[in-house]
Specification:
single chain, about 500 residues, FAD/NAD(P)-binding domain, Cholesterol Oxidase, domain 2, 2 domains
Amino acid sequence: MEPHLPPGRVVRAGHHGFEGYPAHLDLEADVCVIGSGAGGSATAAALAERGLSVVVVEEGRRWLPEQFQGRAPWAFKHLYAGRGTRATRGNCIIPMPGGRGVGGSTLVNSAICFRTPEAVLEDWRTRFGCHHLTDAWMGACFDRIWRTIGVTVNPPEVQRNNNHIFRAGAEALGLAGAWMARSAPGCQGCGTCQQGCSTGGKLSVDRTFLAEAVASGNVGVYADCKVVGVETEGDRVVAVTGRTVRPGDYVEDGAFRVRARAFVVSAGPIGSPRFLLANGLSDGPVGQNLHIHPTAGVAARFDQEIVAWEGVTQGYYVDCWSSGYLLQTFSMPPDQYFLSFPLVGDDMLAFMRDLRHYASAGVVVHDEDSRGEVTESSLVYDLGDLDRTRILAGLRATARVFFAAGATEVVPGVHGVGRIRTVGEIDELLTDDIPAHAIGLYASHPMGTCRMGDDPARSVVDPDGRVWGWRNLHVADASVFPTSLGVNPQVTVMALGLTIGKHVQVS
């Protein structure tokens, strides 16, 4: 146990929201964590275990499972940053969603759990000096995460047709596929992960790591609090300030201030660099090195009904990681299929009429030669030529899997291609010269914008997550990844949160 602030100056533990706040809210604790997603919640749990008092401030609302409505318009308004309109610009435009609320993006992700690839960890150690991320330490973190968030493989009856049909095609081709492990042990296959899990079957971090932290009696979570500014003394941050946000209309109405001995920024790969930039808190490459996992999809028609939006939203994958990508099933509500696939006129109406007969899956690319940056006002991302051709290779592979499963046609998410009706047309129509702007891309998993490393010239935080030049300011979320990950990142984010929470100094 480490010394913390004297009684009377420790924050009130538990969950708090706008309705209980005075016009000006003053808080104080050993550590202030900004953001309550996978990184912030795991960090708060690690800090609480050390006996430290913690204030977690979160711009979004705290939601209970029964409050989720299972509708995309409602979810975009209440659970997504920028109401779901966030996108990159560059040689293509890519939607880039992110969660908003207590639990962050774990409220709206598909709960997919991959351990950090060993090759990636070795690269982070050798090239970036992250030597404490040993296989033994990270393995222990992964084991704890598996227990805490209830990672399991959902049973076949919950997977349902969209996942089963893709599995059948992959097995027919002899591909290395598997059911995906997920932090959704109680999944009922309702297909609404991206709108918030109304059944409670998905264990987002607000119900796991953050719940453990709050149960310790050391942690207070303050929702509806948007951090804006900082107060500093020398090389220390002494307070953060901001505005309280009124639920419903999200008008900023009230103020707050948090004093602490140490601060951890966990506002995500977009919010964290923007906070550092807006407050002049780093001279390093803040906002640079934006990586994402560019994705694109394929819909495939079958004679039998599939009803893709019923069952696990993302349940099966094919391992092509050595080629720079994964194939993963996905599903979404019917209105989102209408918005996502590039058919027009009568062709789109026919697609929607037959939508119950379509399955869907796509490619997730481990980006390498693309270049991105987060500024205070924009998100810039240019898809590299290697990554573009990998996406196209993944789309061709996805189409082949569907035809092997018995599809009568496939519709790739590429403008101008239309319907592919035979295996022989795949290479003919999905050629490597298709430009980036013609591909219907989606930006999964931003990362890397506050890169971790041992060289201040090319990193924003040191291997302990501490911002270079500041004694008591840390970052703990996917923004500290030194490189692209290549797999769904929530487990790695949690592992780094546990690690950085162990190293935060409050003296």
